[in-house]
Amino acid sequence: MKTGYRERRIATTVVYHVFTFLLACVMIYPLVWMVMSSFKNSNEIFRTAAKLLPDKFSLENYRVGWQGFAGYGFSTFFKNSFIIAGLSTVGAVVSSAVIGYGFARIDFKFKNFWFACMLLAMMLPFQIIMIPQYIIFNKMGWVGSYLPIIVPQFFGQGFFIFLNVQFIKGIPIDLDEAARMDGCTIYSIFIRIILPLIKPSLVTSAIFSFMWRWDDFMTALLFLSDPMKYPVSYALKMFSDPTAGSDWGAMFAMATFSLIPIFLIFLTMQKYLVEGIASTGIKG
Questions:
Q1: Which of 111, 186, 200, 265 lies at a 20 to 30 A Cα distance from 33?
Q2: Is the pTM above the cut of 0.85?
């Protein structure tokens, strides 16, 4: 009886892992295909699309792609992306932590109402608000600069606020009361006690914020018109020209390059990412 149960359990485990491995291969195949295609010449990419490995590995696409277009090198676009993603991440993480602390620890009028409004705003697709945003920022004279992309991040992001609220609620209120007895204000409690304890939540917010801003194409398309200010996500589109010819090899090469910062962030910060999400789910 025990032997049969053990055999069924082993068989189930083997089937589960084989199925998971095959599913992972299907999901990662487009990424691997893109990376391998970046080493092919443009004619070979679609002529031998079913063939994963190139006939001959070449770095020509990386050289051509890095030169960019119209006199603008991809070093400029990477710099722009780091500026946008870096400043936006700082603004989103800091402001969301402050607002989350207010919702979790401070009593004020209509708190539940404003929290519900924040949740509703978080659920709105960007496509609904992008036209009103464009009209407002255009009247402010911000269109054509980074301000419409970066400044809104300094007023909190719904998902990060909710994440911080759930995490802070899991911290015993006794710590706040003990700090007040020692003469701490709400500001010093937030800086000295809350912030160190919500480090996983802050890192999780930073990872998602940087990734979203780094990959953001729509806001750059809406608000930027000067190629000198294009981020990588928008600059990659310039390699595609349906009316003439598209340099797919250079596009895949630069797209592969653009994945490196995100890959390094997940590689080095995955411990905090898992801890932040798991701890928030348990404490929430």
A1: 265
A2: no
List the alpha helices (DSSP H) in 38-157. 42-47, 60-67, 74-105, 111-123, 126-139, 147-150
Q: Report whether pLDDT(279) > 60.
A: no
Backbone angles phi, psi at 69, to 5 degrees: -150, 155
Contact 236, 153 (CB under 8 A): no
CA distances from 184 to 103, 175, 177, 190, 246 (A): 19, 11, 9, 10, 62
**Amino acid identity, position 95:** S
| Residues 284, 278: Cα–Cα separation, whole Å | 10
CA distance 100 to 255: 35
Distance CA 176, CA 12 (A): 49
Q: Are 39 and 58 in contact (CB under 8 A)?
A: yes
At residue 71, does pLDDT exceed 70? yes
pLDDT digits (tens, 9 = 90+) for 159-191: 999 989 988 988 888 888 888 888 888 888 898
CA distances from 238 to 38, 81, 206, 219 (A): 16, 16, 29, 16
Retrieve residue 64's tokens. 């051509």
Contact assessment for residue 123 and residue 58, using Cβ atoms and an 8 Å cutoff: no
- Half-sphere exposure of residue 20, counting CA atoms within 13 Å on the CB side? 6
Phi, psi of 72 (to 5 degrees): -105, 115
